[in-house]
Amino acid sequence: MKKYLLIIIGVFLAMILGASIFWSRGNQHTQEDIKEKDITSLQQYKISVVELPENISFANEEVPVDLYYVRESLDKELTVNTYWHSSTLLMMKRSSRYFPIIEPILKEEGVPEDFKYVALIESGFENVTSPAGAVGFWQFLKGTARDFGLEVNSEVDERYHLEKASRAACAYFKDAYEDYGNWTLVAAAYNAGKRGINRQIDRQKEEDYYDLLLDDETERYIFRILALKTIFSNPEKYGFNISEADLYPPIPTYTVTIDDEVPSWADFAKENGITYRILKNFNPWLRQSYLKNRSGKEYEIKLPRKEHLNYEKQ
Predict the structure, then answer these.
(1) Which of 299, 307, 306 is nearest to 256 (CA)?
(2) Which of 140, 197, 253, 280 is the most exposed place for a label (fewest CB within 10 A)?
(3) Between the CA of residue 77 and those of 13, 32, 111, 226, 294, what are the distances in Å?
């Protein structure tokens, strides 16, 4: 009996050993397959160095791309915005909706079209609020907004009014251009303030943006504009395969003029066949759910054409 028991135990141990060897070899083979697949995937996914433009300008002012720190600064921002896919892609989509509003205003005001990228890098075309309290697409501070004719109070904040804020920004640009005679410095001053730029001009005895040593944010400012301008001019070259159907389309609107109190914007929206949410989306400068309007001032309320609110099925 003992003899048979020992034989059974031996066979059982042999089976376990065999299974262990088989599993080990199979697992090794699987790991090798995975490793080989990973290497193949890495070879297929190539991260390439971005190609810098040989010549580039901002507002028809040439950029000295041969100067080593200028070239490296442009390379940095072009690389960041090329490989920061989600952010750049979303800015492309939103730009299709808002550039057509901003471009004609810049043209009417005599400001170079490249300044549309100022609004883009300031806000990404979202109504964000900065830590310093700047708001809207153009990121106006309250005092500066009032200086350039925008109404800012608890009920109405025209920093959120794209058309009016765009014209106020143009007024700022033209005012700064009278001081500098140079659009690149005008754009830098929009970021750092004229006082900040003037201080550095006096300190460093230089009057060219590319010759000045500025704080990191202003140092990057023009190059961020140049990077997006370069990518937007040739998206495919920088890996962005985007079709016309992928872009956010402009939504046609009409205006309703009011010069009286509006007790409830929700009721106003319903009377005009839209929701309160849609009303506020198209008029983000209306900051309350009502408008007292004691002065009887005229306001133009932008309303969307309802037939354009839904995407058409492709």
Answers:
(1) 299
(2) 253
(3) 65, 40, 24, 8, 49
